[in-house]
Amino acid sequence: MDLPVMPPVKPMLAKAVKTIPPGMQYEAKWDGFRAIVHRDGSELVIGSRTGKPLTRYFPELAEALTANLPGRCVVDGEIVVAHGGRLDFDRLSERIHPAASRVRTLAERTPASFVAFDLLALGDTALLDTPLFERRALLTEALRPAAPPVHLAPATTDPAVAERWFEQYEGAGLDGIVAKPLDLPYRPDARLMFKIKHERTADVVVAGYRFHKSGPILGSLLLGLYDDTGALQHVGVCAAFPMKRRAELIEELEPLRMDPPDGHPWAAWAEESAHEGARLPGAKSRWTGKKDLSWVALRPERVVEVAYDHMEGDRFRHTARFRRWRPDRTPASCTYAQLEEPVRYDLAEVLAGP
Protein backbone atom coordinates (compact mmCIF):
# COMPACT_ATOMS: atom_id res chain seq x y z
CA MET A 1 0.00 0.00 0.00
CA ASP A 2 1.37 3.40 -1.04
CA LEU A 3 -0.97 6.28 -0.15
CA PRO A 4 -0.30 9.94 0.76
CA VAL A 5 -1.88 9.24 4.18
CA MET A 6 -0.83 5.84 5.47
CA PRO A 7 -2.39 3.70 8.22
CA PRO A 8 -2.81 3.75 11.10
CA VAL A 9 -4.59 7.08 11.49
CA LYS A 10 -6.54 8.10 14.59
CA PRO A 11 -9.77 9.92 13.71
CA MET A 12 -10.50 13.56 14.49
CA LEU A 13 -12.77 13.81 17.53
CA ALA A 14 -15.50 16.03 18.95
CA LYS A 15 -16.03 17.72 22.31
CA ALA A 16 -19.44 17.88 23.95
CA VAL A 17 -21.47 21.09 23.95
CA LYS A 18 -25.03 21.65 25.11
CA THR A 19 -26.49 23.48 22.09
CA ILE A 20 -26.07 23.33 18.32
CA PRO A 21 -23.57 26.09 17.36
CA PRO A 22 -24.37 28.31 14.36
CA GLY A 23 -22.50 28.62 11.08
CA MET A 24 -21.23 25.05 10.67
CA GLN A 25 -21.78 21.83 8.76
CA TYR A 26 -24.10 19.46 10.64
CA GLU A 27 -24.32 15.69 10.47
CA ALA A 28 -26.04 12.98 12.46
CA LYS A 29 -23.99 11.34 15.20
CA TRP A 30 -23.85 7.67 14.28
CA ASP A 31 -23.83 5.00 16.98
CA GLY A 32 -21.39 2.46 15.61
CA PHE A 33 -17.68 1.73 15.23
CA ARG A 34 -15.62 4.67 14.00
CA ALA A 35 -13.44 3.50 11.12
CA ILE A 36 -10.90 4.97 8.72
CA VAL A 37 -10.65 3.05 5.46
CA HIS A 38 -7.44 3.00 3.41
CA ARG A 39 -7.80 1.67 -0.12
CA ASP A 40 -4.99 1.27 -2.66
CA GLY A 41 -6.32 -0.79 -5.53
CA SER A 42 -6.93 -4.32 -4.30
CA GLU A 43 -5.42 -3.55 -0.89
CA LEU A 44 -7.86 -2.41 1.80
CA VAL A 45 -7.45 -1.72 5.52
CA ILE A 46 -10.36 -0.85 7.83
CA GLY A 47 -8.79 0.83 10.86
CA SER A 48 -10.51 1.28 14.22
CA ARG A 49 -10.54 4.40 16.39
CA THR A 50 -7.43 3.09 18.15
CA GLY A 51 -5.69 2.28 14.88
CA LYS A 52 -6.13 -1.50 15.12
CA PRO A 53 -7.49 -3.18 11.97
CA LEU A 54 -11.14 -4.24 11.85
CA THR A 55 -10.99 -5.74 8.36
CA ARG A 56 -11.26 -9.40 9.39
CA TYR A 57 -14.47 -8.77 11.35
CA PHE A 58 -16.36 -7.26 8.39
CA PRO A 59 -15.57 -9.32 5.28
CA GLU A 60 -18.77 -8.18 3.55
CA LEU A 61 -17.74 -4.54 4.03
CA ALA A 62 -14.24 -5.14 2.71
CA GLU A 63 -15.81 -6.41 -0.50
CA ALA A 64 -18.35 -3.57 -0.69
CA LEU A 65 -15.79 -0.85 0.03
CA THR A 66 -13.48 -2.19 -2.67
CA ALA A 67 -16.38 -2.06 -5.10
CA ASN A 68 -17.64 1.41 -4.14
CA LEU A 69 -14.70 3.59 -3.09
CA PRO A 70 -12.29 5.34 -5.46
CA GLY A 71 -9.26 3.23 -6.41
CA ARG A 72 -6.89 5.12 -4.10
CA CYS A 73 -8.35 6.98 -1.13
CA VAL A 74 -8.58 7.35 2.65
CA VAL A 75 -12.12 7.76 4.01
CA ASP A 76 -13.38 8.44 7.54
CA GLY A 77 -16.75 7.02 8.54
CA GLU A 78 -18.75 4.73 10.78
CA ILE A 79 -19.54 1.03 10.63
CA VAL A 80 -23.15 0.38 11.68
CA VAL A 81 -25.59 -2.52 11.83
CA ALA A 82 -29.30 -1.95 11.30
CA HIS A 83 -32.13 -4.08 12.67
CA GLY A 84 -35.81 -3.33 12.57
CA GLY A 85 -35.30 0.04 10.90
CA ARG A 86 -32.84 1.40 13.49
CA LEU A 87 -29.21 1.08 14.51
CA ASP A 88 -28.41 -1.87 16.77
CA PHE A 89 -25.13 -1.54 18.67
CA ASP A 90 -25.49 -4.90 20.42
CA ARG A 91 -25.64 -6.75 17.11
CA LEU A 92 -22.71 -4.69 15.86
CA SER A 93 -20.66 -5.63 18.93
CA GLU A 94 -21.26 -9.33 18.27
CA ARG A 95 -19.14 -9.00 15.13
CA ILE A 96 -15.92 -8.68 17.15
CA HIS A 97 -15.44 -12.40 17.54
CA PRO A 98 -12.23 -14.49 17.46
CA ALA A 99 -13.73 -17.32 15.39
CA ALA A 100 -13.66 -16.67 11.64
CA SER A 101 -16.60 -19.06 11.13
CA ARG A 102 -18.73 -17.05 13.55
CA VAL A 103 -17.76 -13.80 11.81
CA ARG A 104 -18.84 -15.24 8.45
CA THR A 105 -22.16 -16.39 9.89
CA LEU A 106 -22.89 -12.97 11.40
CA ALA A 107 -21.81 -11.22 8.19
CA GLU A 108 -24.65 -13.07 6.45
CA ARG A 109 -27.16 -12.75 9.30
CA THR A 110 -26.49 -9.13 10.33
CA PRO A 111 -24.57 -7.45 7.49
CA ALA A 112 -22.93 -4.13 8.31
CA SER A 113 -23.01 -0.82 6.44
CA PHE A 114 -20.42 1.93 6.14
CA VAL A 115 -21.43 5.59 6.40
CA ALA A 116 -18.73 7.90 5.02
CA PHE A 117 -18.41 11.48 6.28
CA ASP A 118 -14.87 12.70 5.56
CA LEU A 119 -12.09 12.31 3.02
CA LEU A 120 -8.42 12.34 4.10
CA ALA A 121 -6.78 11.51 0.78
CA LEU A 122 -7.74 11.00 -2.84
CA GLY A 123 -5.37 9.61 -5.43
CA ASP A 124 -1.93 11.07 -4.77
CA THR A 125 -3.27 14.05 -2.83
CA ALA A 126 -3.36 14.31 0.98
CA LEU A 127 -6.33 16.39 2.14
CA LEU A 128 -5.52 16.83 5.84
CA ASP A 129 -4.90 20.58 5.39
CA THR A 130 -7.84 21.08 3.01
CA PRO A 131 -10.86 22.91 4.54
CA LEU A 132 -13.83 20.75 5.42
CA PHE A 133 -16.17 22.29 2.84
CA GLU A 134 -13.74 21.32 0.06
CA ARG A 135 -13.24 17.81 1.47
CA ARG A 136 -17.01 17.36 1.63
CA ALA A 137 -17.43 18.38 -2.02
CA LEU A 138 -14.74 15.93 -3.09
CA LEU A 139 -16.26 13.15 -0.97
CA THR A 140 -19.74 13.79 -2.40
CA GLU A 141 -18.42 13.52 -5.94
CA ALA A 142 -16.29 10.47 -5.16
CA LEU A 143 -19.24 8.56 -3.69
CA ARG A 144 -21.83 9.65 -6.25
CA PRO A 145 -21.87 6.19 -7.89
CA ALA A 146 -21.68 4.29 -4.56
CA ALA A 147 -24.44 1.87 -3.62
CA PRO A 148 -25.52 0.28 -0.31
CA PRO A 149 -24.07 -0.87 2.00
CA VAL A 150 -21.75 2.13 1.41
CA HIS A 151 -23.47 5.45 2.12
CA LEU A 152 -22.62 9.13 2.14
CA ALA A 153 -23.59 10.67 5.48
CA PRO A 154 -26.29 13.34 5.06
CA ALA A 155 -25.01 16.83 5.86
CA THR A 156 -26.48 20.32 5.99
CA THR A 157 -25.43 23.88 6.82
CA ASP A 158 -28.95 24.83 7.90
CA PRO A 159 -29.25 24.94 11.73
CA ALA A 160 -33.03 24.48 11.48
CA VAL A 161 -32.53 21.20 9.61
CA ALA A 162 -29.96 20.14 12.20
CA GLU A 163 -32.46 20.83 14.99
CA ARG A 164 -35.04 18.70 13.22
CA TRP A 165 -32.54 15.88 12.74
CA PHE A 166 -31.62 16.10 16.42
CA GLU A 167 -35.24 15.42 17.37
CA GLN A 168 -36.17 12.89 14.68
CA TYR A 169 -33.09 10.77 14.18
CA GLU A 170 -32.94 9.48 17.74
CA GLY A 171 -35.91 7.31 16.84
CA ALA A 172 -33.67 5.53 14.34
CA GLY A 173 -31.01 4.81 16.96
CA LEU A 174 -28.71 7.79 16.33
CA ASP A 175 -27.54 9.72 19.37
CA GLY A 176 -27.23 13.39 18.46
CA ILE A 177 -25.64 15.84 16.05
CA VAL A 178 -22.01 16.59 15.13
CA ALA A 179 -21.16 20.18 14.16
CA LYS A 180 -18.01 20.89 12.11
CA PRO A 181 -16.52 24.32 11.28
CA LEU A 182 -16.56 24.75 7.50
CA ASP A 183 -12.89 25.75 7.30
CA LEU A 184 -11.73 22.94 9.61
CA PRO A 185 -8.63 20.99 8.47
CA TYR A 186 -8.43 17.31 9.42
CA ARG A 187 -6.41 16.84 12.60
CA PRO A 188 -6.12 13.22 13.79
CA ASP A 189 -6.86 12.61 17.50
CA ALA A 190 -7.73 16.29 18.12
CA ARG A 191 -11.12 17.37 19.54
CA LEU A 192 -11.95 20.14 17.10
CA MET A 193 -15.53 19.22 16.22
CA PHE A 194 -18.60 19.56 18.44
CA LYS A 195 -21.13 16.92 19.50
CA ILE A 196 -24.58 17.61 20.85
CA LYS A 197 -26.18 14.61 22.50
CA HIS A 198 -29.53 13.96 24.10
CA GLU A 199 -29.59 14.02 27.89
CA ARG A 200 -32.36 12.60 29.99
CA THR A 201 -32.59 11.77 33.68
CA ALA A 202 -33.86 8.73 35.54
CA ASP A 203 -34.21 7.74 39.17
CA VAL A 204 -32.45 4.41 39.72
CA VAL A 205 -31.68 2.06 42.58
CA VAL A 206 -28.09 1.80 43.84
CA ALA A 207 -27.61 -1.93 44.44
CA GLY A 208 -23.83 -2.26 44.61
CA TYR A 209 -20.47 -0.81 43.70
CA ARG A 210 -17.08 -1.75 42.31
CA PHE A 211 -13.75 -0.67 43.72
CA HIS A 212 -11.56 1.75 41.79
CA LYS A 213 -8.57 0.27 39.97
CA SER A 214 -6.25 2.42 42.10
CA GLY A 215 -7.27 0.97 45.46
CA PRO A 216 -10.01 0.60 48.11
CA ILE A 217 -12.13 3.56 47.00
CA LEU A 218 -15.32 3.56 44.99
CA GLY A 219 -14.94 3.02 41.26
CA SER A 220 -18.55 2.92 40.09
CA LEU A 221 -22.08 2.61 41.42
CA LEU A 222 -24.14 -0.31 40.06
CA LEU A 223 -27.60 0.85 39.03
CA GLY A 224 -30.90 -1.00 38.73
CA LEU A 225 -34.49 -0.57 37.57
CA TYR A 226 -37.47 -2.76 38.35
CA ASP A 227 -39.17 -4.46 35.40
CA ASP A 228 -42.84 -5.38 35.00
CA THR A 229 -42.37 -8.60 36.98
CA GLY A 230 -40.85 -6.78 39.95
CA ALA A 231 -37.31 -8.03 39.26
CA LEU A 232 -34.44 -5.57 39.71
CA GLN A 233 -32.46 -5.44 36.46
CA HIS A 234 -28.90 -4.12 36.21
CA VAL A 235 -29.03 -1.19 33.77
CA GLY A 236 -25.54 0.31 33.97
CA VAL A 237 -23.09 2.22 36.14
CA CYS A 238 -22.35 5.73 37.33
CA ALA A 239 -18.62 6.33 37.59
CA ALA A 240 -17.45 9.96 37.35
CA PHE A 241 -16.55 11.14 40.85
CA PRO A 242 -13.61 13.18 42.23
CA MET A 243 -11.09 11.00 44.08
CA LYS A 244 -11.97 12.52 47.47
CA ARG A 245 -15.64 11.82 46.88
CA ARG A 246 -14.88 8.19 45.96
CA ALA A 247 -13.39 7.62 49.41
CA GLU A 248 -16.32 9.36 51.13
CA LEU A 249 -18.85 7.21 49.28
CA ILE A 250 -17.31 4.00 50.61
CA GLU A 251 -17.95 5.23 54.15
CA GLU A 252 -21.45 6.51 53.36
CA LEU A 253 -22.53 3.23 51.79
CA GLU A 254 -20.96 0.94 54.43
CA PRO A 255 -24.22 0.60 56.45
CA LEU A 256 -25.90 -0.87 53.34
CA ARG A 257 -23.19 -3.43 52.62
CA MET A 258 -24.35 -7.07 52.37
CA ASP A 259 -21.54 -9.49 53.14
CA PRO A 260 -22.38 -12.23 52.30
CA PRO A 261 -24.92 -11.03 49.67
CA ASP A 262 -27.57 -13.64 50.57
CA GLY A 263 -31.00 -12.33 49.64
CA HIS A 264 -29.66 -9.68 47.26
CA PRO A 265 -31.54 -9.53 43.91
CA TRP A 266 -28.25 -10.13 42.08
CA ALA A 267 -26.76 -12.66 44.51
CA ALA A 268 -26.44 -15.31 41.77
CA TRP A 269 -24.34 -13.09 39.50
CA ALA A 270 -21.32 -15.45 39.62
CA GLU A 271 -23.38 -18.31 38.12
CA GLU A 272 -23.25 -18.20 34.33
CA SER A 273 -26.78 -19.60 33.99
CA ALA A 274 -28.23 -16.75 36.07
CA HIS A 275 -27.43 -14.25 33.30
CA GLU A 276 -29.63 -16.04 30.78
CA GLY A 277 -32.93 -14.77 32.18
CA ALA A 278 -31.94 -11.47 33.79
CA ARG A 279 -29.58 -8.53 33.56
CA LEU A 280 -27.01 -8.93 36.34
CA PRO A 281 -23.63 -7.26 36.88
CA GLY A 282 -20.51 -9.25 36.11
CA ALA A 283 -21.58 -10.85 32.84
CA LYS A 284 -18.56 -12.11 30.94
CA SER A 285 -18.09 -11.06 27.32
CA ARG A 286 -15.39 -10.79 24.69
CA TRP A 287 -14.79 -7.25 25.97
CA THR A 288 -14.10 -8.12 29.61
CA GLY A 289 -11.29 -10.65 29.09
CA LYS A 290 -9.56 -11.24 32.43
CA LYS A 291 -10.98 -8.08 34.00
CA ASP A 292 -12.06 -8.42 37.63
CA LEU A 293 -15.87 -8.38 37.51
CA SER A 294 -16.45 -8.71 41.26
CA TRP A 295 -18.53 -6.14 43.10
CA VAL A 296 -19.83 -5.27 46.56
CA ALA A 297 -23.53 -5.89 47.19
CA LEU A 298 -25.63 -3.17 48.86
CA ARG A 299 -29.13 -3.40 50.20
CA PRO A 300 -31.15 -1.81 47.35
CA GLU A 301 -32.52 1.01 49.49
CA ARG A 302 -30.96 4.20 48.09
CA VAL A 303 -32.16 6.06 45.02
CA VAL A 304 -30.04 8.30 42.82
CA GLU A 305 -30.94 10.54 39.91
CA VAL A 306 -28.61 10.07 36.95
CA ALA A 307 -28.37 11.60 33.49
CA TYR A 308 -28.10 9.33 30.46
CA ASP A 309 -27.90 9.72 26.69
CA HIS A 310 -30.16 6.90 25.52
CA MET A 311 -31.07 3.29 26.09
CA GLU A 312 -29.70 0.28 24.23
CA GLY A 313 -32.48 -2.21 24.76
CA ASP A 314 -32.97 -2.48 28.53
CA ARG A 315 -29.74 -0.77 29.66
CA PHE A 316 -28.00 2.59 29.48
CA ARG A 317 -25.91 2.76 26.31
CA HIS A 318 -23.11 4.75 28.02
CA THR A 319 -21.98 5.41 31.58
CA ALA A 320 -24.59 7.47 33.42
CA ARG A 321 -23.73 10.76 35.15
CA PHE A 322 -24.51 11.40 38.83
CA ARG A 323 -26.97 14.24 39.44
CA ARG A 324 -28.25 13.95 43.03
CA TRP A 325 -29.45 11.58 45.69
CA ARG A 326 -33.24 11.17 45.86
CA PRO A 327 -34.20 10.42 49.50
CA ASP A 328 -37.78 11.33 48.56
CA ARG A 329 -38.09 8.37 46.18
CA THR A 330 -38.69 4.75 47.13
CA PRO A 331 -36.69 2.04 45.35
CA ALA A 332 -39.91 0.31 44.24
CA SER A 333 -40.89 3.43 42.28
CA CYS A 334 -37.75 3.16 40.11
CA THR A 335 -39.17 1.29 37.13
CA TYR A 336 -38.67 1.27 33.37
CA ALA A 337 -42.01 3.06 33.03
CA GLN A 338 -40.39 6.41 33.86
CA LEU A 339 -38.07 6.29 30.82
CA GLU A 340 -38.94 8.45 27.84
CA GLU A 341 -39.19 6.52 24.58
CA PRO A 342 -38.19 8.44 21.41
CA VAL A 343 -40.63 8.39 18.51
CA ARG A 344 -39.63 5.70 16.01
CA TYR A 345 -37.97 6.91 12.81
CA ASP A 346 -36.94 4.71 9.90
CA LEU A 347 -33.18 4.54 9.40
CA ALA A 348 -33.75 4.38 5.64
CA GLU A 349 -35.13 7.92 5.81
CA VAL A 350 -31.91 9.07 7.50
CA LEU A 351 -29.67 7.50 4.87
CA ALA A 352 -31.81 9.00 2.09
CA GLY A 353 -30.50 12.44 3.14
CA PRO A 354 -32.18 15.85 3.21
UniProtKB/TrEMBL annotation:
Residues in ATP-dependent DNA ligase family profile domain copies: 105-227
EC number: 6.5.1.1
A biological process term (GO) from this entry: DNA recombination
UniProtKB keywords: Ligase
Gene Ontology molecular function terms on file: ATP binding; DNA ligase (ATP) activity
Gene3D superfamilies recorded: DNA ligase/mRNA capping enzyme (3.30.470.30), Nucleic acid-binding proteins (2.40.50.140)
Catalytic activity: ATP + (deoxyribonucleotide)n-3'-hydroxyl + 5'-phospho-(deoxyribonucleotide)m = (deoxyribonucleotide)n+m + AMP + diphosphate
NCBIfam families: PRK08224.1
Sequence similarity: Belongs to the ATP-dependent DNA ligase family.
Name of this protein: DNA ligase (ATP)
Species for this entry: Streptomyces inusitatus
Lineage: Bacteria, Bacillati, Actinomycetota, Actinomycetes, Kitasatosporales
Gene: ligC
